[in-house]
Amino acid sequence: MAVFLSSFVNRLDKKGRVSVPASFRAALGVDASGIVIFRSLQHEALDGCSIGHLELLSQSLEKQDLAPDVYELIETTIFGGSVQLPFDGEGRITLPHSLAASVGINEEIAFVGRRKTFQLWDPKKLAAHDAASRSAARAKDISLSKIIAAAAKFENGGF
């Protein structure tokens, strides 16, 4: 499965339409007719994914023994708050004003790849979040080589 990579800033037109980056549409696959978005549970942003990813989440929930209140929270916030947005003929979506306003998106949208999902941010808020994230990553001494080494150690039974 393809992954969502990179960041792009696109303009929102007066009708609330915005072009989804071509590489994101490609990651969704040729059969994808649109995206699903919902308010992030962690950030002042919107989370986006394919309908297939939400189906995977639903199947994953069925395999877990979660407390009823946790199911309720997930179903209300993610599934109940999700909106399916079809692509038009030019690869654009129409972003509902209420969702855009809820996270401060006005004229421009930053699309941010997050491997299997992506986010939609107000570009100024994203810049602040990115700076804070990079600072936190440095403080925790996170690096690609350490992640790869830890994965290799795990695959070898911890040796």
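^ that was protein a. below is b, sequence first then the tokens
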Amino acid sequence: MKKTILITGATDGIGLVTAKLLAKQGHDLLIHGRSNSKLDDVAAQLSTIPNHGKISRFVADLSDLNAVVSLAKQVSESLEQLDVLINNAGVFKVPQTITAAGYDVRFTVNTVAPYLLTLKLSDVLHEQSRVVSLASAAQAPVEVDALLGKSTLDDMPAYAQSKLALIMWNNALATRAPEGSPVYIAVNPGSLLASKMVKQGFGVAGNDLEIGAKVLAKMALDESVAEHSGEYFDNDAGHFSPPHIAGTSSQNIDAVMAAIDVLTEQYL
């Protein structure tokens, strides 16, 4: 069955390969990126794929939460319902680690923006929808002060903490969700895949990106996944499993959610 699917960060890496895979299956795609020219190029590539569905383009800088709100509004106004949201966009090493609002860009893009986008799209998401959010095998206990912009972190700690924080809000949304809410899945697409992020961060070519694209498509579309709302799928292990132990503590989850609520309350 044809689905309507939004993919953030669809102009390169796993997001681009996932978009191509889903286009081959005939789904209607909403592709997001930070650059109009890159989106034009990707849309042109997708348009050459036999059986592709409708392709729509959306530009937003996810380090700016006002832009996240605007993106959600544009998406919501463009359709009646959204079947799948793939929160793929993420950052690791960046020239400027602090946003204009004074927060860590890794936490903003990797944790807070996808959370805010998910909530702002609630009007078009439905009970059968999937929210698939890109986590990582790199996970570390979350320093709430760093999440709130009160302290600074180096690249790897910030990245690993931002990804565990994402897993934690994925769990919290599913646990606290009212009846009729989407299925929420966090997924590690596979370690050291051949993305620009891996090349910049680790200086290695990496493994085939299709490993990650295939698991994202599976989490988005496979009916058997629906029973795992709020869980974390580790593609290195090949199954759903607990994340870093610090992400399973209800006390830690409550603290992280309280911080995320502080960061997003003015936008909700």
